[in-house]
Amino acid sequence: MFPFRVVNQAAVEQILDMSNVIEVVEQAYKLKATDQATLFPLIFHEFEQGKADMDIKSGHLTGANVFGLKLVSWFGENSAKNLPQLIGMVMVLDSRTGVPLGILSGEHITCMRTGAAGAIGAKYLARKDSKHLLMIGSGHQAPFQIMATLMVMEQIEKVTIYNPQSHERAVAFAQSIQNTLIDKFVSKYKGDPALYAKWAKRCEITFAATDNIEAAAREADVIITATPSRKPLVKQEWIKPGTHFSCIGADMEGKQEIDENLFAGARLFVDDVQQAVNVGETELPIKKGVITPQAIVAEIGDVLLGKVPGRTSDSDITIFDSTGIALQDLLTATHILREAEQKGLGSVVDL
Amino acid sequence: MFPFRVVNQAAVEQILDMSNVIEVVEQAYKLKATDQATLFPLIFHEFEQGKADMDIKSGHLTGANVFGLKLVSWFGENSAKNLPQLIGMVMVLDSRTGVPLGILSGEHITCMRTGAAGAIGAKYLARKDSKHLLMIGSGHQAPFQIMATLMVMEQIEKVTIYNPQSHERAVAFAQSIQNTLIDKFVSKYKGDPALYAKWAKRCEITFAATDNIEAAAREADVIITATPSRKPLVKQEWIKPGTHFSCIGADMEGKQEIDENLFAGARLFVDDVQQAVNVGETELPIKKGVITPQAIVAEIGDVLLGKVPGRTSDSDITIFDSTGIALQDLLTATHILREAEQKGLGSVVDL
């Protein structure tokens, strides 16, 4: 029998802060790029088409001596049952012995590491002088993308929000997002007044909703997409040279958020080649014959390590296709388990 | 946050008894045969060749409204660290909502459901008048195979044990197995004196070790193989008509316990066609060209349901290739969770 730590959602939220998660996710990408991490095949199962599915993402971080998995299920009709639609669990084990180390609530880990991923794409691929972020999608994930991007892109001074389904929701989002960022993310730094002030100040910028996606896209320096879309929301002809895309929404076959023609001539980076080709934003441009898999310049970890240049000029269009990989979850979870142990958070049970 | 039951190894051992597990595993096979169960692809990863690996088996039992997975890791060098070589966990979730129901220690579940599987193969495929069981392998799994088989095959009056690596261990095993069966399995029925007496009596038969595998195989009616062998231990020419094999050991590429030529002309049944072809005892006879996958008569569930005849004559050689499927684990785990809730066993934590 093994002592085994269970960390629930409240404890995960208490432990994680965005700047830490950005560091952890960068580390995960770097481990992958130095062959200190292996992704296992993705398992995806649809219980009922368009209504309920689950996936199991798993892998091994030799560089951190852990392996494990994240199981996430999505049940679209859960809201009517007073349950969250998305439920996730991360399981971490010691890769030197197979001994289980812990199980953690996975929703907040997923949100945080996904926000970090979009921002890391912008940090390493967008023009340093990028001033205008267009956030497409104003759902649960949008605040995570915005906060993380503001933290790593110091010149951003305006965030425009577009919701393809409801302008009203975009307006409400734009009105509340500053408070949301303070409450959800900046409040974590209360113990460190200088850091708190720094990040709070970073949120004092312009947030505006738009119902004119074309105008917003024409003006944007960085575009982050985080929607469940299955058709392109952004057209190629709107995009000025030098724009960066972090494509977050596409994580299963058939999903697409931006014009496949944008991929021709863009510098394309992914978190994992195989996942990107199978289920990412990269899937359809390949299937439609716009590009071949060889158009992928590299995995993002290679850019972080300086092995491959990201942007090569101010006029490059850069794309980061983030499908979400188990290594992000596992390394974030490992960080949480270490903190939880130090702080005495979570329950320790025998397995 | 969700209340979530953690059932450790001691509680699993307290709850499970072999006759119940045999019923549960039969039920799992039947659900699979009536399309009330889906296996997801098997994930296998070798940390270090021949020294450490792990697999994730997962699936969905619509018929029981659960889905989930079992993660089992094997670290050959753990004994030196005072840790078990095999460590497993089963995770069960509600397939109507995605809500996690529990996590359970997986080792004992695996041992019990594997024992049940071998016995179910014999129950449905061996000659009813089978008197002599040859158990090849005297490791951790052997007592589970023997107990379950004695429970379902009432005519068995002699068990011969062969250990391909050490006759001494076979001798020691044969000397202690009766007590082991009583302690480990029959003692579960202490609360029901009639049942206790019935199963205790079933263990009063002859147990003998042999170092002459040929003579034992020539005489056997039922042969169960549960070794990590990678070469055949049983030759075709030794086997008399009417013999039944339950092949348990082969669960990864390259493993083999019996002569591939036995497959030509045998009635071959499997737990899951794809797993059997990929990693089961069926793998090498196909790769060596002795049979094609079409030689598989059916999955065992079809026999249990009477959809496909098992043995068609007293002279058939029958083979059950049991690779071990997640559905066995998940349904056994679901049974445990139900019992644990009723009996107040395990810890309930928030996830």
UniProtKB/TrEMBL annotation, chains A, B:
Q: Which domain of life is it from?
A: Bacteria
The parts of the chain that form a coiled coil are: none
InterPro entries, from UniProt?
NAD(P)-bd_dom_sf, ODC_Mu_crystall, ODC_N
Sorted alphabetically, the Gene Ontology BP terms of this entry are: carboxylic acid metabolic process
Which Pfam family name is an example for this entry?
OCD_Mu_crystall
Keywords of this entry: Lyase, Oxidoreductase
What EC numbers are recorded for this enzyme?
Answer: 1.4.1.1, 4.3.1.12
Molecular function in Gene Ontology: alanine dehydrogenase activity; ornithine cyclodeaminase activity
Q: Does the keyword Lyase apply?
A: yes
A GO cellular component term found in this entry reads: cytoplasm
Which family does the record assign?
Answer: Belongs to the ornithine cyclodeaminase/mu-crystallin family.
Tell me the protein's name: Ornithine cyclodeaminase/alanine dehydrogenase
**To which species is this protein native?**
Brevibacillus fulvus
Taxon lineage: Bacteria, Bacillati, Bacillota, Bacilli, Bacillales
